[in-house]
Specification:
There is one protein chain. By secondary structure, this protein is α/β, with parallel strands linked by helices. It has one domain: HybD-like (Rossmann fold). It is 33% helix and 20% strand. It is built from 5 helices and 6 strands; from the N terminus they run E-H-E-H-E-H-E-E-E-H-H. Strands 1-5-6-4-2-3 form a 6-stranded mixed sheet. Helix 2 links the parallel strand 2 and strand 3. Helix 1 packs across helix 5 and helix 2 packs across helix 5. The radius of gyration is 15 Å and the shape is globular. It starts with 9 loop residues before the first strand and ends with a helix.
């Protein structure tokens, strides 16, 4: 099942931008089908690399919220990463072939883009920055630029300060919760 979209989209909002939670929630309302029971959030990443914690941190925030009723795959306790991603995708596709998946992951980018949250029409290609060959994930994707791309990406992810993905994950989780709350009212 796909949301009704007239054209591809790609939106960017810096997590510190004034009104970021409200602006993100508006984008999420426009592009995430909160009206379906088949909505699943895949929060990709690992707690073993600070730069790759955006997904599991966001997943933990969402799964701990009693106000967010959707299934979340990938938390700090049970991360969704390279070793179990294919299996989780296959299980979801078998159990619920019409699931609408929102994929959330950290990524690397230009130094001027660090801190931006990107909403994109289409899947994430997880592990690309560190040369992993993993399946594309998601009907739409939310990416957070946590550090600079271009050289020794694995080391860059390992040495990223935890503060940035942590703060970005709080904004992202609040915006998703607000979007769902706005949808319900």
């Amino acid at each position: 099942m796909r949301a009704t979209l007239t054209s591809p989209y790609n939106h960017r909002i810096h997590y510190k931008e004034t009104g970021a939670v409200w602006k993100l929630s508006t984008l999420f309302l426009e592009h995430i089908p909160f009206d379906t029971h088949e909505l699943i959030f895949f929060c990709i990443g690992t707690d073993r690399s600070t730069g790759d914690t955006l997904g599991p941190l966001t997943g933990s925030h969402l799964s701990e919220s009693p106000l967010f009723p959707f299934p979340v795959v990938g938390t700090l306790e049970k991360p969704l990463h390279a070793l179990n991603l294919q299996q989780q995708l296959e299980e979801i596709q078998l159990a619920n072939p019409s699931a609408f998946i929102v994929a959330i992951d950290a990524c690397l980018g230009k130094s001027s883009s660090i801190g931006q949250l990107l909403l994109h029409d289409g899947p994430i290609q997880p592990g690309k920055a560190v040369g992993k060959d993993l399946p594309p994930v998601g009907d739409i994707s939310i990416k957070g630029i946590v550090n600079v791309a271009g050289f020794m990406e694995h080391a860059v992810l390992q040495s990223t300060r935890l503060h940035l993905p942590f703060e970005m994950s709080k904004i992202l989780a609040r915006a998703l919760q607000l979007a769902y709350g706005r949808y319900k009212s």
